[in-house]
Design a protein that fits this description.
Layout (H helix, E strand, L loop, with lengths): L7 H4 L5 H10 L5 E2 L11 H12 L12 H15 L9 E4 L1 H13 L5 E6 L5 H7 L3 E6 L10 H5 L6 E6 L12 H13 L3 E5 L25 E6 L12 E4 L2 H14 L5 H13 L1 H24 L12 E2 L10 H12 L1 E2 L1 E2 L11 E4 L4 H16 L1
Parallel strand pairs: 1-10, 3-4, 3-5, 5-6, 6-7
Antiparallel strand pairs: 2-8, 7-8, 9-12, 11-12
The structure holds pyridoxal-5'-phosphate (PLP).
The site of pyridoxal-5'-phosphate has 13 residues, from helix 5.
Amino acid sequence: MSRSRIADHVRTIPRSGIRDFFEIVQSMKEVISLGIGEPDFVTPWHIRESAIYSLEKGRTGYTSNLGAPRLRRAIAAYVEKHFSVGYNPHDEIIVTVGVSEAIDLALRALLNPGDEVVYHEPCYVSYSPSILLAGGVPVAVATRAEDEFTLRAADLEKTITPKTRVLMLNFPTNPTGAVMPLEELKKIAAFAVKHDLVVLSDEIYSELTYDEVPHHSIAALPGMKERTVLLHGFSKAFAMTGWRIGYACGPADIIEAMMKIHQYSILCAPVMAQEAALEALERGQRSMERMREEYRLRRNLIVTSLNEAGIPCHLPKGAFYVFPDIRGTGMTSRDFALQLLEEKKVAVVPGTAFGQSGEGFVRCSYATAMDQIKIAIERISDFVKK
Ligand code: PLP
C-alpha cells in the first residue's frame, strides 16, 4: 500500500464527535436542537453598528500583530476590573482569532514533543486534539457528578510525571457548567506552583455565572500571574461567535512566543472584528447582562423540568449547558442521543463527545429559545417514560 500523503499526527486524530452527530441532525427535518454551543442571540446592534461604522470610515487594513493597541488597552482595563489581575497591553496581551486560536498558539508555544498536558474531563472537544497537534501528550483527569464536575486538587497529584508541563483549566466548564469554589482553586494553584507548571486557563464563559456565584480567575491568585495564560474572548457572553475574536493575557515571554506563531500563520485578527470587540468591552455590559438573565431563566426551567421528568440533573452554576445523568435509562450516551433524535427529533450531544468520563450523561445547551426548550423537554420526558 502506498504511503499516506496526510501527516501521521493529523491522520490519527479523530474528527469531533459533535460534528459527526450534527451531520446526522442536519440531514433531518424539524429537529429541535439543544446541541449547539452557540448563543441563539444575534450580536447586540450597537456592536454590529460599530463594525459597520469602522468600515464606512475605511478601516480595512492590517493591525499590529498583537492586535490594535486601543483594543489591547481596553482588554487590560476589562480584565483588571473583572478578574482583578493587571496586564501590560504593550507586551502581555495578544488578540487572536477566537479562543480557539489562543489555545493552539499557547500549546504550540509551550510544548516540546512528548510533554504532557493535564486537563479535566469531560471537557471542550478541542483540548485533546489541540494538545496532540502541538506534539504533546494529553492526560485527562475525570471529574465527578457528585462534585458537580468541579476539579479536586488531590486528583491532580496522581497525574504528575517528569514530563508534565502544562495544566489546562476551563471554568465555568463546557459541557458541565461547573464553577470552581475558591478554596479548591487555591489548592490547584499550589499544585501548579509545586510542580512548576504553566496553567492555561480558558475562561471564555466567565461572565456567565448565575445567582451571584462569583467567577474566580486562577491568574489572580498569589504567585499565579507569572505562570498563567488567561484565555478569553467574545463568542459566548457577547454572542459574537462568528466574529472570531479572542485574546490571551500572560507573561511577556509566553505572549512573545505565541505572537511569533500568530505572526507567521495569521498575521492579525480581522480589523472590523477588533473594532466590534472594542465596542463590546466599552459599552456591551448591559446587553450582556440581559442575555445572562435570559440564560438564567432558561437554565432554571430546563433543570426543574428534567428532574420532574425523572432525569437527574444538577443545577450548573455557569456557562449555558446542563449535563443530565441518563444512567437510569440503562442506555449509553450515544444510544440515548441517537434514539432521542430518531424518535422525538430532539438533538442533544452524547457526553462521550467530551471524553470517556462523559459516559452516562448528555449535554443540552440552553442557548436556545425558551419555547423551543419547552417543546424539547416535553419530548424528552415522553421518550424517557417510554
Ligand atoms: N473554549 C471553550 C471551553 C469553548 O466552549 C469554546 C467554544 O465552544 C471555545 C473555547 C472556542 O471559542 P471561540 O469561538 O472563541 O474560538
